[in-house]
């Protein structure tokens, strides 16, 4: 018996990350409806500036070529939350900017008022789920027996 964990054909990490990103969307969606942050809540949102779908002004990409953190606290407006992204207007050195940020580009979401932190992994461009070989149980596995009964014969022979 081996001590190593077998490779999973179910991408649990991706599923959990997607679910946690939905938390970010739900929180921002609640704020977007009221245009106010409740109590002392405020958010630090860190995202990859070069990730697919990110749309921010060129001067911000030049200043933050890899990753950037924005703060949603006092001075933000036009917060719009979509199923897979959000957009918000902020000022940087007194210059207003509209940001479009897909949830998939977010690497961290922090609400320091309640010590709440979520951290995410972001796939690099062109990087998708790891390749894997076909499972040995793919394909038809059951054949009905031709005797008129409702018994099913299962062939457990390994495919080559």
What is shown here, in short?
The protein has 160 residues and is α+β, with helices and mostly antiparallel strands. Helices cover 18% and strands 31% of the residues. The strands form 3 sheets. A 4-stranded antiparallel sheet has the order 2-1-6-7, with helices on one face. Strands 3-4-5 form a 3-stranded antiparallel sheet.
Report on this structure.
It contains 2 helices and 9 strands, in the order H-E-H-E-E-E-E-E-E-E-E. It is an alpha+beta fold. The strands form 3 sheets. Strands 2-1-6-7 form a 4-stranded antiparallel beta sheet, with helices on one face. The longest helix is centred in the first third of the chain and has 23 residues.
Number of helices: 2
β-strand number: 9
Q: What is the global morphology?
A: globular
Strand content: 25-35%
Low-confidence stretches: 126-145, 149-156
State the strand order across the main sheet.
Answer: 2-1-6-7
Q: Please, what is the average pLDDT?
A: 80
Fraction in helix: 10-25%
Radius of gyration: 23 Å
User: N-to-C terminal Cα separation, in Å?
Assistant: 24 Å
The biggest sheet amounts to: 4 strands, antiparallel
Task: Indicate the structural class.
Answer: alpha+beta
In N-to-C order, the SSE pattern is HEHEEEEEEEE
């Amino acid at each position: 018996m081996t001590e190593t964990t077998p490779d999973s054909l179910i991408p649990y990490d991706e599923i959990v990350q997607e679910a946690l990103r939905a938390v970010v969307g739900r929180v921002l969606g609640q704020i977007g409806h009221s245009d106010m942050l409740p109590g002392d809540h405020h958010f630090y949102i860190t995202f990859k500036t070069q990730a697919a779908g990110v749309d921010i002004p060129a001067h911000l990409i030049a200043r933050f070529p890899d990753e950037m953190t924005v703060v949603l606290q006092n001075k933000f407006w036009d917060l719009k939350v979509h199923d897979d992204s959000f957009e918000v207007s902020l000022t940087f050195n007194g210059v207003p900017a509209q940001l479009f940020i897909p949830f998939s580009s977010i690497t961290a979401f922090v609400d320091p008022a309640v010590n709440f932190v979520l951290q995410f992994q972001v796939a690099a461009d062109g990087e998708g789920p790891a390749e894997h070989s076909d499972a040995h149980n793919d394909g038809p596995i059951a054949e009905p027996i031709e005797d008129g009964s409702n018994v099913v014969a299962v062939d457990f022979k390994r495919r080559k």
